């Protein structure tokens, strides 16, 4: 139930975050470690950015199946309940969600925090069987 609250809070955060930037594609190489405002640090991984971007794009499109496919298995399992992940998520898609653009990821081991242009939103992703998946939809 706590995870559902996190996902719902993520929905609200998207709605409150405001619009992002353009449709720039992520770079193809990792950059060096930097320290960002708020103390975030770590290498930039375009694949982590892309995973978070797919997640927020799915919210903008109100595509519950795509949202679920962007989530880590543990999150999908907790959201599934008796009706499945997509049915649970579909109930939360009541707002218009702004277009956000992933700006940078800060990787620490198998976890990364992704930030967005013009928004305080941060999405946490983790590596799961080699792919980045969302474990926290944002704060």
Task: Provide a descriptive summary of the structure in words.
This protein is α+β, with helices and mostly antiparallel strands and 139 residues long. It has a single domain, classed as Nuclear Transport Factor 2, Chain: A (Roll), CATH 3.10.450. It is 37% helix and 27% strand. It has a four-stranded antiparallel β-sheet with strand order 3-4-5-6. The protein has a two-stranded antiparallel ribbon with strand order 1-2. Strand 4 and strand 5 (119-128) form a beta hairpin. Helix 2 (46-60) packs antiparallel against helix 3 (64-70).
The percent range for strand residues is 25-35%
The rounded Rg comes to: 14 Å
CATH architecture: Roll
How helical, in percent, are the residues?
25-40%
CATH class wording: Alpha Beta
Gist of the model:
The protein is built from 5 helices and 6 strands; from the N terminus they run αββααααββββ. The chain is α+β, with helices and mostly antiparallel strands. Helix 2 packs antiparallel against helix 3.
List keywords for this structure.
139 residues; alpha+beta; Nuclear Transport Factor 2, Chain: A; four-stranded antiparallel beta sheet; 5 helices; 37% helix; disordered N terminus
